[in-house]
Amino acid sequence: MTYVDGFVAAVPTANKEAYRKHAQAAAVVFKEHGALSLVECWGDDVPQGKINSLHTAVIRKDDETVVFSWTLWPDKATRDAGWQKIMADPRMQPDVNPMPFDGSRMIFGGFEVLSQA
User: How confident is the model at residue 115 (pLDDT cuts 50, 70, 90)?
Assistant: First the structure.
């Protein structure tokens, strides 16, 4: 069964185009190393919660937008091997493809697919 990596981050709103370009460049590398697809979403209707929300999870600042993305892998083994190759790939180094946001506030995780319609 497929495996999913999910990510949520706060990106400076002024960096929307830089983020899109960063994501497109990264997608090439991810697919070369086994990813089936990548989806990048720019926050459009992300409500503030009373106790918690995506805004508070990523410590979003007033001039930032919440982004949500996921990568679909054939299985966890492919994902684990792919991530090792991605992290070693020179095209993913910060001096070549810098993240246009504060990666320390990004939240992420790997998920086993339980159901898919």
Answer: very high
CATH label, 3-112, candidates 3.30.360.10, 3.30.70.100, 3.90.1150.10, 3.40.50.700:
3.30.70.100
Contact between 17 and 109 (Cβ < 8 Å):
no
Cα–Cα distance, 12 to 58 (Å, whole number):
12
- Which of 63, 47, 46, 48 lies closest to 11 in space, CA to CA? 63
76-106: per-residue pLDDT in tens? 999 999 999 999 999 999 888 889 999 999 9
pTM above the 0.85 mark? yes
